[in-house]
Design goal:
homodimer; about 10% strand; AGE family epimerase/isomerase (chains A, B); 14 strands; about 55% helix; about 400 residues; AGE/CE (chains A, B); mainly alpha; Glycosyltransferase; 3-stranded antiparallel sheet; isomerase (chains A, B); 6-hairpin_glycosidase_sf (chains A, B)
Chain lengths: ~400, ~400
């Protein structure tokens, strides 16, 4: 076993000297505001559409880093350089505030470069990431307007949560009333993100509900895994959607749960989250080529997702976070063994030392499938958040 | 060069002795009617949802084969065996007629096994394939009710064509008003399918419009290829959708165009379709592993489609049809050279001699990605139609 401290410097330096500078250099749109996120291998912009998920996530990332690291001593990263992080966050927030919302306050899915709406506000996760962005930035700035945007968006999410897609929902109501894992999973995290803006009773109630949904309703004890879609009462639906497993989603949720459990000193909850993580890893690890599959079918049938066997950046970096938090909170040596295995695969395949930042999409064999650093879904979020979380957790070991 | 006649027997026998019997044996749902289309490698049912595209396409396939082959001498396939084809078509049509339509006459996207609606009628291609199915079956049966279903569905398609997704459309009207290649491409084919039910002036007008759309509007002469999405006036949109190329779609459309050109004795149109086919093949052929890519970007940028590099059954079988028709109509030797190359790749990778029928989804390397014979999108359609078209065209060489 290599000492944990060996890894600390790698995660820290990659965050501060590679990933964050890459986005600072290549993503700001100085003409129209906001960020370019479609960046090729070397950082050239290959498409100018602005996706609200990624605009908001980048605002969040720079705000979060500023809030956590903006004023503490940090070798080699002077304070004025970190003040630029706050400017980046404000740059994105201005664009979002000006162009991001429809008349009813819900957030569009995407905009043109100059801010005209392209895709309607059908996707509630646009609202989730906007809440995170303005919540973090309101802390950094002490800005009441930003706080209000975060709070009012959060209130709308809670109102929309039972039918988030509204009239864009293609499912016939009642025939197969499945509910999806993503929203309760994100609400776990979101309620902590804007805790400073919420009534404490609402925070506690939301957290209680989310933990119950994730660990009791979506977790299938017979299968030993978390399902992506279940019937309203948590029962299994033997359908494509009901059989679907999204291992990266499940493992990412486990570190949200571990954070909540740590806050409550609930060791049993941490232990359960660690068990689910390890069982998911065993199930979803590709024994032939290494790495974690993107989608699986709980009965081993073919998935509808043609990309099921691909290896994605966020799946792997979120897994590293979960394993380190699990190890830190329980000392379970299986977490460390798996951390070293996933670390080795991840660092051998995703980073691009030549041009900076990380690739996002690999084929099953671990070769680069799309030579992009950013696109419609990959932006300045999972890699920097994951590197930050790993770095911080490693320093506690 | 191997003589064309060498291939004829292979295409014929595979259709009549392998593919059609596979669907006859494994797909009928004797309890609730209609067809199972989610069939694993050996034909076992792994999911029971009923997708209107595939229900209708299977009705069409069995009706078409009955109409073309039902009463002619055919070695080794007695007449009574072919009468079963008509029973299969009726079996599917009964289910569709009973359960397939919403109150306004539009066709749902999918149903449960017992016919309850699952996914709303947001997808106009459900209606297109229903039209084809009932149009062909009305010929076989001389059935007025089937003819009426085909005709009224076709009329609704024409009414919906400018906004086919209705309120399920997520694009904000006006910002980037792209139109998609699939509908004009299918209307080319559809108007001939139900010609017997339409006013001749409407048929001619629809065909004229479709040829113009496909060959002038979606074909980009500077690029030398057909685009999947263009601005209303045919101009290029430098966006993910605007840069998208779908080589299999373009090549499939070329044999619809060749059929229309043959009907009009328009040799210049055939020659143009052959040129587009050959240029698309040169552009989309994978020089490393063989086979045709599924999606590409006209500027060489990363696509949004993670499955871009995969090799799909329909792309390859439709290409074989186009190349043979092009060769038959023009004698261009490039068509035959490409036919032999695509034939060799296709027959080496897609058929499954052990369990019958063909695989649908291969990875870039040509290995089986999903070991299914049928699913949400692959049913009893492209393979039998392609084998039939190739067989018939080969006999004319």
């Amino acid at each position: 076993m290599i000492a944990p401290q060996t890894y600390t410097q790698l995660y820290r330096d990659t965050l501060l000297n590679d990933v964050i500078p890459f986005w600072q250099k290549h993503s700001p749109d100085q003409e129209y505001g906001g960020f370019f996120t479609c960046l090729d291998r070397t950082g050239n912009v290959y498409d100018t559409d602005k996706f609200i998920w990624l605009q908001a996530r980048q605002v969040w990332t720079f705000s979060m880093l500023y809030n956590r690291l903006g004023s503490i001593p940090l070798d080699g990263t002077p304070l004025e350089q970190r003040a630029d992080w706050l400017k980046m966050a404000q740059h994105g927030a201005n664009f979002l505030k000006k162009h991001g919302r429809a008349d009813d306050g819900s957030w569009y899915f995407s905009l043109t470069r100059d801010g005209r709406p392209l895709i309607q506000p059908y996707n509630i996760f646009s609202d989730c990431f906007a809440t995170m962005a303005f919540g973090q930035l309101s802390v950094a700035m002490g800005n009441e307007e930003y706080a209000h945007i975060a709070k009012s968006t959060f209130d709308q999410i809670l109102q929309r949560r039972d039918n988030p897609k509204g009239h864009w929902n293609k499912a016939v109501a009642g025939t197969r009333p499945l509910k999806n894992f993503a929203l309760p999973m994100i609400l776990c995290n979101l309620s902590l993100e804007i805790e400073h803006l919420l009534d404490q009773a609402l925070v506690n109630q939301t957290i209680d509900e989310c933990i119950h949904e994730v660990m009791d309703v979506f977790y299938d004890p017979d299968l030993g895994l978390i399902r992506e879609n279940v019937m309203p009462d948590g029962q299994f639906s033997d359908s494509f959607e009901g059989r679907l497993l999204n291992p990266g989603h499940a493992i990412e949720a486990m570190w949200f749960i571990m954070d909540l459990a740590a806050r409550r000193n609930d060791l049993a909850l941490v232990e359960k989250a660690v068990r689910i993580t390890l069982d998911t890893l065993t199930y979803a690890w590709d024994d032939v080529h290494g790495g974690l599959f993107y989608f699986m079918d709980s009965k081993g049938h073919p998935t509808q997702q043609l990309e099921w066997e691909q290896k994605l950046w966020w799946v792997h970096v979120e897994t590293l976070v979960t394993l380190l938090k699990g190890y830190q909170q329980t000392g379970n040596p299986e977490c460390w063994v798996w951390f070293e295995r996933v670390h080795a695969y991840t660092w051998a395949h995703f980073p691009d030392p030549e041009s900076g930042e990380w690739y996002g999409y690999l084929n099953r064999q671990g070769e680069v499938l799309l030579p992009l650093k950013g696109g419609k879904w990959k932006g300045c979020f999972h890699i920097p958040r994951g590197l930050y979380q790993c770095w911080q957790t490693l320093t506690k070991l």
